[in-house]
């Protein structure tokens, strides 16, 4: 397995400390910090090693935001280091370790209460106790793998940041990047996979592009259902971007859609192990198990199918429990509980919670396709024709990518098939399914 990346925020060269003594920060890095990171099973990256394209700003920001771990040396209260630390704390809830040299001045009040680790310097400005201090830093980094939060922003601001799933769908709209590439990709998504490939070819080396451009390209391949192209793009990304949670989640989705369900499962479980539970990761993992369940059913492997159905329900439930605001994994859990033989009675307790999650997002003015699709699916499950008709119209109008109505139509098909077998057919539900399929064909 590839070692996680650890970005180092610190001054460079020889700088004066608070008392005037010169500190050799390059020696601090090579003798103390880098060995600690390596001992913790990580790969160190320092900003001055990331001069790709001759510009330090873009790679510095990307590494700072996307590297799984970071070490910040606060010695001398360097302004650049504190700026970078503030940015890191704003985007990463955990995995940032603070250190400082003893006797070189008091830390500023704002970070004085944070869990910073001291190290000793000799009269020559180099580490005086490198082995012991390096071991202590390595131990803290290993502990950081399991700490839920060390960022004061995430600790103190309730509900920060927004729903996990939304980071995928609105990434293109929140990142500033070259407008001509954005326009080309928007047009290419309407033309098909060959047009998207042509835009990629025009970009040159993908790893040198801004993260926003690469993610837009990645999601454009998703929009045209070019799963193999999505998978092939990941190794060409810069390592921190490729290893980011969002990319790994979407890689899992693409692997599954490409028929590589076991690889998708491993990729998603690795994200959960590293990052903890989220509605997005578990939502995609639930889809992996659901696809394998349906394949087992078609193959006549009923016992395997029962086990995979339970796995799918459990994954969707964990996703919904990770973030009650995200109705997507919740509605999938409810639907699959309906498909069990006999239906799981616990779904009745879950249905109003899922409905409330979707309704609150709509009321807050932040609805997307999945919120309306959730209410549509619930109405079909509840045999409520008027509610289904209202939700269907809103869902059709909110479609962004062809696979969205396809996914909902598939769920409705599964409900229809099991109800037909039970002698509990709902004729008008078939019309809803057909409307979604028609919208998917029009979008494609």
Notable features of this structure?
single chain, 444 residues, alpha/beta, Rossmann fold, Serine Threonine Protein Phosphatase 5, Tetratricopeptide repeat, 5-stranded parallel β-sheet, two-stranded antiparallel ribbon, 7% strand
Task: Write structural notes for this entry.
The protein has 444 residues and is an alpha/beta fold. It has 2 domains: 5-156, 3-Layer(aba) Sandwich (Rossmann fold), CATH 3.40.50; 238-443, Serine Threonine Protein Phosphatase 5, Tetratricopeptide repeat (Alpha Horseshoe). The chain has 23 helices and 7 strands. The protein has helices at 25-39, 57-66, 79-91, 109-112, 130-144, 152-156, 166-169, 171-174, 179-191, 193-203, 211-223, 227-233, 239-243, 245-257, 261-275, 279-298, 302-322, 327-339, 347-363, 369-381, 385-397, 403-422, 427-443, and strands at 5-9, 14-16, 22-24, 43-46, 69-73, 96-101, 116-119. It has a 5-stranded parallel β-sheet with strand order 4-1-5-6-7, sandwiched between helices. It has a two-stranded antiparallel sheet with strand order 2-3. Helix 4 links the parallel strand 6 and strand 7. Helix 1 crosses helix 5, helix 9 runs parallel beside helix 11 and helix 18 runs antiparallel to helix 19. The longest helix is centred in the C-terminal third of the chain and has 21 residues, at 302-322. The chain is elongated, with a radius of gyration of 25 Å. The model is unreliable at 49-56 (pLDDT under 50).
